[in-house]
Amino acid sequence: MNIRSVLKMLVRDKWSWFFIPNIVLFSIFIVNLIVSLFITPKEKYFTGGVSYIFVYMLVVGILVVAQTFSYAVSMSVRRTDYFFGTVATGAIVNLSFGVLLLICSIVENWTNGWGGKFHFFHFPYLNDGTLLEQLFIYFILLINLFFLGMMISSFARRFGKKGMAYASISSLLIASIAALLITYYEHWMDIIHWIVDHTAVQLAYWLIIPTLFYVVFSYFFLRRATV
């Protein structure tokens, strides 16, 4: 079984990859849209319901390895083929959702918030750039979370529950120490100013680095993971 076969094997689960995220996303959208019709705000009305799809991709990244790795290896799939097949699947699916979000954002903007100043897909700052930049922002956010989930699941597969416990505690300690140092040296405002001074697409470019980090480490974890 090669990379192409792995891709076909993974996308057979159309419910997890396509149906469930779309059904839930647009169900949230419709509910919010109906609510907005009764509110009739004087100014633009924004909701964060679209964040669901980004969280979902993190969960999918975790589940795809947990649910398919052992099966694929038992079917004589090389670990390298499984890894690249999963990466390709994640990239294609997340690009598709990026395009979908972009189209919905464009329609929402053209219709002035679906005729009621309601904004579910289109946001200031996030959608200020060109269409290509907006697509890149959606794509890098989605794929960053997907590969973060994939790395977490790959790490768990490689080191087990004890490894996950040690990693969780270490991450919590590092985050706590970092927050303490930033607070002590009063750098929070510097960080906020740095973020404000950059456009959304410029910040998205910085996500390329951790995304590549997740991909590389997922590969090394899966190469030595137990079935």
Automatic annotation (TrEMBL):
Keywords from the named record: Membrane, Transmembrane, Transmembrane helix
Transmembrane segments: 15-39, 51-73, 82-103, 135-156, 163-183, 203-222
Lineage: Bacteria, Bacillati, Bacillota, Bacilli, Bacillales
Keyword Membrane attached: yes
Protein name as it appears in the record: Uncharacterized protein
